[in-house]
Amino acid sequence: MGQFRMLVVDDEAVIRDGLRRILEGEGFFVETCVSGHSAIESLHAREFDLIVTDLKMPGMNGIEVLKAVKALQPEAPVIIITGYATVDTAVEAMKNGAVDYIAKPFTPEQLLQKIDRALEQRVLLMEELNRTKDAISSQHGFGLFVGQSKEMQKVYHRIMQVAATDSTVLVTGESGTGKELVARAIHQNSPRNGKPFVAVDCSSLAENLLESELFGHVKGAFTGAVLAKTGLFKVADGGTLFLDEVSNISLSTQAKLLRVLQERLVTPIGGTQPVPINIHLVAATNRNLRTMVGEGAFREDLFFRLNIIPIELPPLRERKGDIPLLISHFLKKFTAAVGKNIRGIAPDAMALLETYDYPGNVRELENTIERAVVLAGGEVIHKDDLELSPDSTGGSDLHGMEEGYVPHTSDELKEMKRHIRDQAVEGIEKAFVMGALERNNWNITRAAEETGILRPNFQGMLKRLGISVKAQLEK
């Protein structure tokens, strides 16, 4: 039958060993797992051609293993083994994506017959996937993405894997790498693409306003609630909800979000009647949630609930082979928008663009090309039109901000964070907050007003950064 790789999942050693002997006798490579949890670890580590799993196992049953396979390796067929061969069992297994099931006791011939049929289906599926992959490779990217690097090909493949499922996705990556584009690509390639795509920036709203936006509220729930409001969880019903900068959600709101994700029910603020929701959730952050969990700033249970399918976007400096394609794309986009006839980029300018470190990632490159198109005096963009430092390996001109400059307003802070490494963000934020407090004699309300940040959000930053006004005043 060929050198196929099999994963066998069963909590009974006798069954595992028996299946291994049968399958290895047919020339298969066989890996066995004692539980569903260890099977998921194996699925994360390597690819399999077929999975055979028992139905009744402690901790995580065969249906849950099946769902994990459909999320992580959707092209891999799954055969369920059961000692409880009822019609309901078969229907549930097939409904969740199993290609077949087999009841105990069974003969080796019966099992191998089902495996042979499943592998034939897999070969046909892989041929179709390869044709799709070739079509993607013949273009310059995927969906709204531009890039053909191996790093981005991995991202495209994971998007296609998860798009067909409802498994929660956590997209990570530095600012400017395109996390929302991932969420939109998942939605557009999913069966939900005819339903709403709703994006929420969790960093732009105070805690009470964010909860009202997400969960909705009933009339009279709080001062100013003169009308009932439908929450975005319900607005996105049937479609995809994208929670950007999920790391900025307060601990109390995290608890409510976890409950919604577990129960798939949302109760509007001030309401008593839970409302069922049907969404595909995609969350994103440019911060390390594992580190935040260790610091007590993010709930561990929510992290695991969000991190079912991780997608990590590479920074632009790690896929520099895509820079010429991106430059060409942005050049066409902005010359058409501005109405200029720019034929190309001079060699010295192209050399700088290809070697620059791009701390702001693709967004910074896009802004750089737009600025160059606007400023270019002729039909060719030259080095002087770029406003980039040729010696830069991690910084930029920050649009006129000198090195060591501490931002004074929310807009300046956002601009600076776009151009610095993630590990430097917290230091800039602390300097920003401390500077505002010192200039306003440690008055939180005045400091928040000066920076253009809502007072609850400013207080949230103080808490997240571990800054105590009381402690500072007692020094």
Automatic annotation (TrEMBL):
Keyword Ubl conjugation part of the UniProt annotation: no
SUPFAM superfamilies noted in UniProt: CheY-like, Homeodomain-like, P-loop containing nucleoside triphosphate hydrolases
InterPro entries associated with the record: AAA+_ATPase, AAA_lid_NorR, CheY-like_superfamily, Homeodomain-like_sf, HTH_Fis, P-loop_NTPase, Sig_transdc_resp-reg_receiver, Sigma_54_int
Tree of life domain: Bacteria
Every Sigma-54 factor interaction domain range: 145-374
Limits of the Response regulatory domain: 5-119
4-aspartylphosphate modification, residue list: 54
CDD domains from the UniProt entry: AAA
Keywords: ATP-binding, DNA-binding, Nucleotide-binding, Phosphoprotein, Transcription, Transcription regulation
Annotated protein name in UniProt: Sigma-54-dependent Fis family transcriptional regulator
Organism listed in the record: Oryzomonas sagensis
UniProt KW Metal-binding keyword: no
